[in-house]
Structure formats: C-alpha cells, structure tokens
C-alpha cells in the first residue's frame, strides 16, 4: 500500500502535463501547507442532476470540488471517456462544485498574476472554512479506509461516501471474523442480507452497470458461463425472494489503486423480461453495521 508521501507525489505527478491544472493545484496544495486536509485529483462524481463529471480537485472533508476551465485536448477527452467506467464514483449530492477560470469573458487567457490572485483567494476561503467545521477530522492516511470509524459510527451511508480497500474491511462492518476472502459475495450469518462486490463495468462473463441515478444495477451475462450463473441466481431468487444485497462496488481511484464503495442496498426484481439480465432495485441508502 502507498504511503501518504507516495500518494501526494503521485497525485501531482499525474497532472504534470496539464499546464494550468498542474500550476493551480500545486499552488493550492503548497499554499495550504496543511497535512490535515485530504485532497483527491481527478475525482469522478455524479452530480445532483444525475450527470457525471470529472472534477480536477476534490476535498472530501469539505464536500468541495474544484473544476479548472483549462480545455482538454480531444485526445484527453476520449481518454477520460474510456477510463471513467472503471473509476471510483463519488455521489456529489449536497457537495459544492466551484470553478476557477483561466480565461477572461472575451476568451483571452488571464495573466499569471490574475490566476495566482484567484487561487490565493480560494486558499484563504478554505482556511476559514476549516475553522468553521466543528467536527473536522484530520486526514489520517493510514486509517482513511479503515472499518473502525464506520463501526464506531454504526452505519454505512451513501451520502458519507464510505470506501474500503479490501473486501474484508467491508465485511468486518457486518460481523466477519476471518482472515481471508476472495469470492464476489458473502452471506451475513443469521440474516437475509449478503455483501456483494461487483465490478460495474464489463469484466469476464459480465457486463454490469449502475443506472445514472444510482437506483438500479443491471447484471448482464455476455457468455454461456454468465447465462448459466443467471439461471442459478433465478432459482435462488425464487427460493429466497426476500434476500437483499449490500453492495460495495469495485473501482479504481485516480492513481489506479482498488477501492470498494458502498452504493446502496439492493433487491432483485422478481420478474425480468430478458433471459440474460437480472436487475436489482435500490431499496436503502443506509445500512446499520453488525458486529
């Protein structure tokens, strides 16, 4: 696993070829000079209207995103489209999304001192905002994805953007006591629920997807092995119609590290018109932990 130093250096290195983005983000991080503030570069988000966006800088403790209006090249636009499907997705409901413009109203480029002044004003506003958060939790890189804070809080919630690195970390929130697990699902003992860890993109025998509003998962088989699994699942659904899936979707962050994000609790539809598809409807956005 990376260290905090690795994370910071790699985050900045990743954007080094984007001139204005690199200058602005580097200046923000250096001017803040605050190891307690967490930041994420190039965060994939679902906005309040259901639309997707790739924000240039995200501050999880502030629910704040910054977009820099440096127009990407066409090659970069296509690259973003190709990679978004596998990326970690933050639900931005209730978040603030701000813009920092590098162009004037007439379309000409702002001067470096003008951009620097706006960046510094943004930094000053963040410093003030930090003092106004009474329950501000400093960025602890080592425990950022630990299940302990979630267990202490007592629930997982979509709005809290709960993320883990491993399946076991998610499972410990629901009573798992073992040391290893490599399957795609785990049944919670003495419960009608199970934890499901799907990839919500094409992988192996599946083409899974989460609807734009986050309320439906379509599990679609793309070969004979997938269709055989669908048939078995249909039999299980008929036998256990009340079984529910607490879903932690697999994804990768901007640096390529694997993540598992809680996207809701889902229940399979009892009727489905297409033989190669099972659809799951979201029935809860919050789930109590079980220890």
Biggest sheet features: 8 strands, mixed
What is the structural class? alpha+beta
- Tell me the number of strands: 17
Q: H/E element string?
A: HHEEEHEEHHEEHEEEEEEHEEEE
> Helical residue percent?
25-40%
Number of domains: 2
User: What is the straight-line distance between the termini?
Assistant: 26 Å
The whole-number mean of residue pLDDT values reads 89
What's the overall geometry?
globular
Number of helices: 7
Low-confidence stretches: none
Radius of gyration: 21 Å
Q: In percent, how much strand structure appears in the residues?
A: 25-35%
Quickly describe the structure.
The chain is of the alpha+beta class and 291 residues long.
Highlighted features:
single chain; 291 residues; alpha+beta; 2 domains; 5-stranded mixed β-sheet; 7 helices; globular
Would you kindly provide a written description of the structure presented here, covering whatever features stand out?
The structure is a single chain. It is built from 7 helices and 17 strands. It is globular, with a radius of gyration of 21 Å. The strands form 4 sheets. Strands 7, 8, 9, 12, 13, 14, 15 and 16 form an 8-stranded mixed β-sheet that branches. Strands 4-1-2-3-5 form a 5-stranded mixed β-sheet, covered by helices on one side. Strands 6-17 form a two-stranded antiparallel ribbon. Strand 12 (209-210) and strand 13 form a beta hairpin. It folds into 2 domains: 4-132, no CATH class; 145-288, no CATH class. The two termini are 26 Å apart. The mean pLDDT is 89. The protein has 291 residues and is α+β, with helices and mostly antiparallel strands. 26% of the residues are buried.
